[in-house]
Design brief:
Strand content: 5-15%
Oligomer: single chain
Strand order of the largest sheet: 1-9-8-7-6-5-4-3-2
Shape: globular
Number of helices: 13
């Protein structure tokens, strides 16, 4: 897979006037399914990566190396442009540079860097905390400077609207625009009014994540420069429940071939790229 091609596709989406729903991707099979369905973009959230790699909640215990390896596994299996949650960049501005470099080499089409204070400090409350605007801007500048491929998209991300209010979110987003990011990422917006105010006060394309059902309207989001969006990762939750139910049924005595809802041979062949492997066997191993 040519790394620049998915990045160019994603840049075309950001430069357009549509709003594209991102598929939730967390491993090579989910990435292949996104390809099979014709999805135009995908999102690997930090929570999904942590669960898929560690079976752990999103508490910043996943390492950069582990994240980059999982991204590579997905981009190797699929050419769907992958937006990767780079969290806080795993440290200060120097760490942000390393994060961008590793995820770029792993094939990410876009990397988001956020201004949340992570990991949680000793004695802190459950409420998220943000770094200063100056520190956040420094991280964004470092992220932009670190990329080798100019097509790689850097997303300046903030949860300020839900943490400290829309006015602070706008101040931060304006600063990140000045820092040179390519687009702005807004997770956790709660109302259309919040998005309306932010869209009016900023100029770059918006990537919108984790919004409530009342905001999941592609035409509305497009009118507010929301070029990419996600309504959450519920498809992953559905997959976990389906696997749990199937394993439970077999454990309790149901024969595995009788488990309902199993993928058929055609779908399994598609998500494992079986056709290509069959061709390679014939070409390179000399048998059919």
């Amino acid at each position: 897979m040519a790394a620049s091609s998915p990045r160019k596709k994603l840049r075309e989406i950001l430069a357009g006037d549509r709003s594209v729903l991102m598929a939730s991707v967390y491993d090579p099979i989910s990435a292949r399914i996104a390809t099979e369905l014709g999805c135009e973009a995908a999102l690997m959230g930090g929570s999904l990566a942590s669960i898929a790699v560690l079976g752990a909640p999103d508490l910043i215990i996943l390492t950069l190396t582990e994240l980059a390896e999982q991204v590579y596994r997905c981009t190797r299996a699929s050419a769907v442009p992958l937006v990767v949650d780079g969290d806080h960049g795993y440290g200060n501005a120097f760490n942000v540079m390393r994060t961008v470099q590793e995820l770029e080499h792993a094939g990410a089409a876009a990397v988001s860097i956020e201004d949340t204070l992570l990991p949680r400090a000793f004695g802190s409350t459950d409420a998220p905390q943000l770094v200063s605007i100056d520190e956040g801007s420094g991280k964004m500048k470092a992220a932009v400077a670190a990329r080798c491929d100019s097509e790689l998209i850097i997303l300046g991300r903030t949860s300020a609207a839900a943490v400290s209010g829309v006015d602070d979110a706008i101040a931060r987003l304006n600063a990140y625009e000045e820092a040179g990011v390519d687009a702005l990422m807004l997770p956790g917006l709660r109302t259309r009014d919040e998005l309306d105010r932010i869209a009016a006060a900023t100029r770059l394309p918006l990537v919108i994540g984790g919004i409530p059902e009342s905001m999941c309207d592609s035409e509305y989001l497009a009118s507010r420069r929301g070029r990419l969006w996600s309504g959450g990762h519920n498809t992953f939750n559905v997959a976990v429940k389906a696997l749990y139910d199937a394993m439970k049924a077999v454990h309790e005595g149901l024969l595995a071939p009788k488990v309902a809802g199993a993928a058929g041979k055609e779908l399994m062949n598609a998500v494992t790229n079986a056709g290509s492997y069959a061709e390679w066997i014939q070409r390179f191993l000399g048998r059919s």
